[in-house]
Write a sequence for this structure.
């Protein structure tokens, strides 16, 4: 399923079931925004990420309760992608210095505890967690990981692509089934992150809870 179709399912579900969240989806990123992002990271962008940005430039509800993407995440606009990435690059260089990192030469989808220049944040959480796209070369180029500064990346990518992530969320919302089932079934979760996630509206906020 295309990103456009999956995103339409999400937006339609939000409009019918949670209009407060629907109103917080940003307008599409401009062509200038996307070209600037491409130039700033100096890496190819996955086509499905570009397609998503052409539909919505993140959301505006990251400072309030609730989340659109499991487990705790909301999509960030282009300029926030770059500012978060720059902040993490600076932190990494202060800690370990400049130069190659462990993982730089590994293919996309390889675990690493370092923040690499080939990682691009696409969503954040109130507890400082991130979702990022892995832009290293390889068969898993464009896969989506979770990141926490305390422990680095998750043990495996959560989704194989942005398109898969959006389709998973769309199906979870519209079909009432848990998201992240493939990851829960196929990889070792960190402690207390071991279950698929079911969407619910709790006290007026969209959130995800373990099944």
């Amino acid at each position: 399923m295309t990103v456009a179709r999956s995103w339409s399912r999400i937006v339609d579900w939000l409009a019918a079931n949670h209009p407060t969240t629907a109103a917080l989806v940003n307008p599409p990123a401009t062509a200038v925004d996307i070209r600037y992002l491409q130039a700033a990271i100096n890496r190819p962008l996955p086509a499905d990420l570009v397609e998503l940005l052409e539909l919505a430039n993140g959301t505006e509800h990251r400072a309030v309760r609730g989340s659109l993407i499991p487990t705790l995440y909301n999509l960030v606009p282009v300029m926030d992608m770059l500012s978060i990435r720059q902040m993490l690059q600076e932190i990494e260089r202060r800690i370990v210095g400049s130069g190659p990192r462990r993982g730089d030469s590994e293919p996309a989808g390889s675990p690493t505890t370092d923040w690499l220049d080939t990682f691009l944040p696409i969503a954040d959480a109130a507890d400082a967690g991130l979702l990022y796209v892995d832009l290293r070369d390889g068969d898993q180029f464009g896969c989506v990981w979770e990141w926490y500064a305390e422990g680095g990346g998750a043990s495996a990518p959560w989704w194989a692509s942005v398109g898969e992530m959006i389709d998973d969320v769309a199906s979870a919302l519209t079909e009432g089934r848990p998201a992240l089932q493939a990851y829960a079934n196929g990889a070792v979760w960190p402690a207390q992150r071991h279950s698929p996630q079911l969407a619910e509206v709790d006290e007026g906020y969209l959130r995800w809870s373990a099944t």
User: Anything to note?
Assistant: The radius of gyration is 16 Å. The longest strand covers residues 119-124.
